């Protein structure tokens, strides 16, 4: 997609990214979003898929990182946390795997989520 350029994050930013298309900007060009049985491959495909959720003023969901872990080597990290519906009810969990670039910035390499579907709900 023209106009979509990567925006690598710093380690402190991993837990502060806001939900929305901004999240797509920190994805590597070769990132994979696990979307059920049909994973989306590449930042362009992922951004195209997610754009429809953010066309209206209010998105149909939001998420918040609650856990951020980094390998002792400092090369990979994972963020995970709840996904909420517009009323604030927990409806799922997301997981993002990050890779540190040579310049010290971070980008998402794998992203996925899971529906709680009758399991623990808050």
E-strand count: 7
Q: Give me the number of helical elements.
A: 1
Sheet with most strands:
7 strands, mixed
Can you tell me the number of structural domains? 1
- Please name the CATH architecture: Roll
Describe the structure in brief.
This protein has 122 residues and is mostly beta strands.
Descriptive report:
It is a single chain. The chain has about 120 residues and is mostly beta strands. It has one domain: Nuclear Transport Factor 2, Chain: A (Roll), CATH 3.10.450. Strands 1, 2, 3, 4, 5, 6 and 7 form a seven-stranded mixed sheet that branches. A hairpin with a 5-residue loop joins strand 6 and strand 7. The N terminus is likely disordered. This is Nuclear transport factor 2 family protein. It comes from Arenimonas fontis.
Features:
single chain, 7% helix, Nuclear transport factor 2 family protein, seven-stranded mixed β-sheet, NTF2-like_dom_sf, 122 residues, Nuclear Transport Factor 2, Chain: A, mainly beta, 7 strands
């Amino acid at each position: 997609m023209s106009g979509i350029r990567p925006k690598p994050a710093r380690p402190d930013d991993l837990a502060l990214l806001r939900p929305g298309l901004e999240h797509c900007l920190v994805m590597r060009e070769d990132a994979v979003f696990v979307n059920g049985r049909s994973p989306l491959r590449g930042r362009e495909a992922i951004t195209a898929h997610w754009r429809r959720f953010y066309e209206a003023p209010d998105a149909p969901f939001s998420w918040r990182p609650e856990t951020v872990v980094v390998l002792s080597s400092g090369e990979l990290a994972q963020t995970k946390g709840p996904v909420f519906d517009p009323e604030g009810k927990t409806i799922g969990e997301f997981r993002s795997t990050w890779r540190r670039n040579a310049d010290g910035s971070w980008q998402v390499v794998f992203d996925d989520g899971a529906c709680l579907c009758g399991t623990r709900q808050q």
